[in-house]
Design goal:
The chain is built from 7 helices and 4 strands. It is α+β, with helices and mostly antiparallel strands. The chain folds into 2 domains: 77 residues, 3-Layer(aba) Sandwich (Glutaredoxin); 111 residues, Up-down Bundle (Glutathione S-transferase Yfyf (Class Pi), Chain A, domain 2), CATH 1.20.1050. Strands 2-1-3-4 form a 4-stranded mixed beta sheet, covered by helices on one side.
């Protein structure tokens, strides 16, 4: 059985758990990190020297880095679904996964951390404002990409939507002003209607 270590308040753990649920893989989730602790143990350090979440163990294959985990699970268990068989469609999904990791997720992080996880008296207003402005500009890129399509790589959900969707959930849940994004919002509603997101993206942001 697939084993996962992490906490569902982590956007990176959400990616993995959602993918696992889309693929209907039997799994266990051990809560570590944040209020659960456990990242500083020798045992955890052997699995992930970065001492971050998530980590998986799939029959002895230990893997860390959330996007790498999602790609692995999609390739091994989701060919034709999360892992498109068409190489061009897979490249589109892959590109947006990398864009999320290098652009959108880092952009929204300061605003999310400042407004959701930091007491008001300790917030850096300038950093929050800059973060929101950058994240909003990037969201408009995604809005443009989602014009006239159901999902990021076309007509079907792929690994790209899973990774993008988790960060979209964080962007939409952070209390900032946002531009109108009708295509993005419609896509997000489609994601939230999927049974696999229930109990993952339906939890309060924390």
């Amino acid at each position: 059985m697939l084993k996962i270590w992490g906490r569902l308040s982590s956007v990176n753990v959400q990616k993995v758990v959602w993918a696992v649920r889309e693929l209907a893989l039997p799994h266990t989730l051990t809560q570590v990190g944040g209020q659960y602790g456990g990242l500083d143990t020798p045992e955890y350090g052997k699995m992930n020297p970065n001492r971050k979440v998530p980590v998986i163990d799939d029959g002895g294959l230990v893997l860390w880095e959330s996007n790498a985990i999602v790609r692995y699970l999609a390739a091994r268990y989701g060919e034709g679904s999360l892992w498109p068989t068409d190489v061009a469609l897979r490249a589109h999904a892959d590109r947006w996964m990398d864009w999320t990791a290098t652009e959108w997720q880092p952009a929204i992080a300061p605003a999310f951390l400042g407004l959701v996880r930091t007491p008001e008296a300790q917030r850096d207003a300038a950093a929050i404002e800059a973060s929101a402005r950058k994240a909003n500009a990037l969201a408009l890129m995604l809005e443009d990409a989602l014009q006239q399509r159901e999902f990021i790589a076309g007509a079907h959900l792929t690994m790209g939507d899973v990774v993008l969707g988790c960060v979209a959930h964080r962007w939409l849940g952070t209390p900032i002003e946002r531009p109108a994004t009708p295509a993005l919002s419609a896509w997000y509603r489609r994601l939230m209607m999927r049974p696999a997101t229930q109990g993952v993206l339906t939890l309060p942001l924390a």
